[in-house]
Amino acid sequence: MAFTHIDCFSGPGGICTGLHAAGFETKIAIEYIKSCVDTYSANHPEVHIIHDDIRNVRSEQILPYIPNDKIDLVTSGMPCETFSTAGNTSRSFYDDRQFLFREGIRIAQIVNAKMILFENVPAITTKTVAKNSKELIVNILKKELQEAGYTNYKEFILNAADYGVPQRRNRFFILATKDRNLKLSSPPPTCSKTITVKEAFCGLPNVIPNSGIEKKNYTQSTSAYAELMRNNIFWKTGFDTTENLSYHMPMRHRACTLERFSLLKQGESLKDLFDHYIGAEREELQKRRVLPQKMFIKRNYRLKPDEASPTVTSHCLDEFVHPFHDRALTVRECARLQSFPDAYDFKGGPYIVPHIDRAIQDKYEQIGDAVPPLLAYAWGMEIRNLLKEYRNEQ
Predict the structure, then answer these.
(1) Residue 283 dihedral angles phi and psi, to the nearest 5°
(2) pLDDT band at residue 92, thresholds of 50, 70 and 90?
(3) Mean pLDDT of all residues in the chain?
(4) What is the model's pLDDT at position 357?
(5) Which residues, other chains included, contact 104 with Cβ-Cβ below 8 Å and sequence gap of 6+?
(6) Contact 159, 170 (CB under 8 A)
(7) Strand, helix or coil at 10?
(8) Alpha-carbon distances, residue 55 vs 17, 103, 105 (angstroms)
(9) What is the torsion angle, in degrees rounded to the nearest 10, for the CA atoms of residue 345, residue 346, residue 347 and residue 353?
(10) What is the separation, in whole angstroms, between the first and last Cα of the chain?
(11) 364 contacts 6 by C-beta, under 8 angstroms
(12) Which residues of 211-228 are buried (b: 16+ CB within 10 A; e: fewer)?
């Protein structure tokens, strides 16, 4: 018998993809952003998706789609913007989004979920409810979990690189259940060796900036990780293998931007260029727009091929440069760093959209904000074992 799942703040489907590979059946997904809904429905057509602000979702929209024995797991990866330490002013964001964890608890109560899994950035553990307050958001979350009957909970911080994801991505989790006797645990690391960027990109041909030519054929190079990304039996997609590449389209870059990229060594970023070039030399590069007038710390980092990538974010198009070629990454390369299978179809949204509207996400933003499917898979396998114990106790 499959374990059942409701996906709150579902995004493009990173958690669902991993849990599906682990044998879960996602019954309902709830997502506000239309482009994410489009991508989710294209890849998980069997899931009933509620496209709305989760605060508007009521029990009558949910209960007809769940089985009689209720739901095993509710996942809740609420938006992390107010908790992230990226940027100089982000910690001044005190708005209604920081309390959206309440909606995950509310949905879990509606369906009498056996377990809840919360996911967010580690900085959530130090975020206060207001600028001059000492009360922590995470303590309110734990208090309201207890009030809802989920008195048995445990906190974890996991690095996605320990679970086969070619990316150093730390994430905070709370796993909670009403069963006081259940010993909660996080998934043990599944990867003894870090998966590198080079391994992640195996089989992906180079694309030429400004050419407008999308490459659809794999190269002969391969790695165990690249094979896993093409293994649709593992991902339970219904296909044996992925024959053709998708979303491997080069970006357009100005000549000055391409020159900037050529100055970067592996492991260097825009900040390093500002350190290297000073005085008149920097001014000349700025005059030709090779360097911008303002230095951005997290911008134009040339990946190291023999290491895992830094955290992939919604700004990954601007943040990363290919380890060997003078260009930004393609959508498929970013998807590889996040462990989305090659068969994943990023239907929703354009390739690029300005970061001005929370209601729209382009393909890069969808990928960067998602939970890596391989990390979700590891959680799925661990929670399966815990739910088996739960059933045995019942």
Answers:
(1) -60, -40
(2) very low
(3) 91
(4) 56
(5) 8, 9, 74, 75, 76, 78, 116, 118
(6) yes
(7) coil
(8) 24, 7, 12
(9) -170
(10) 16
(11) no
(12) eeeebeebeeeebebbeb
Residue numbers annotated as active site: 80
SS3 131: coil
Q: How far apart are CA 223 and CA 226, in angstroms?
A: 5
Give how far Cα 175 sits from Cα of 9, 156, 276, Å: 16, 8, 46
For the residues of 255-310, what is the DSSP string, one character each? HHHHHHHHHPPTT--HHHHHHHS-HHHHHHHHHTTSS-SS--SSS-EEPPTTS-B-
Residue position matching structure tokens 């909660």: 184
Residue 371 to residue 118: CA distance in whole angstroms: 11
Alpha helices in 136-231 (DSSP H): 137-147, 197-200, 224-230
* 346-379 pLDDT tens trace: 987 766 666 555 567 899 999 999 999 999 999 9
- CB 314, CB 365: distance < 8 Å: yes
Contacts of 140 (CB under 8 A, 6+ apart): 99, 129
Structure-token match 């059942």, residue found: 4
pLDDT tens digits for 93-151?
Answer: 556 677 899 999 999 999 999 999 999 999 988 888 887 888 899 999 999 999 999 99
381 and 26 in contact (C-beta within 8 Å)? no
Contact 305, 198 (CB under 8 A): yes
Give Cβ neighbours of residue 206 (< 8 Å, ≥ 6 apart). 215, 324, 325
State how far the Cα of 351 lies from the Cα of 331, in Å rounded to an integer: 8
What tokens were used for 375? 């990390």
DSSP secondary structure code for residue 22 in this structure = T
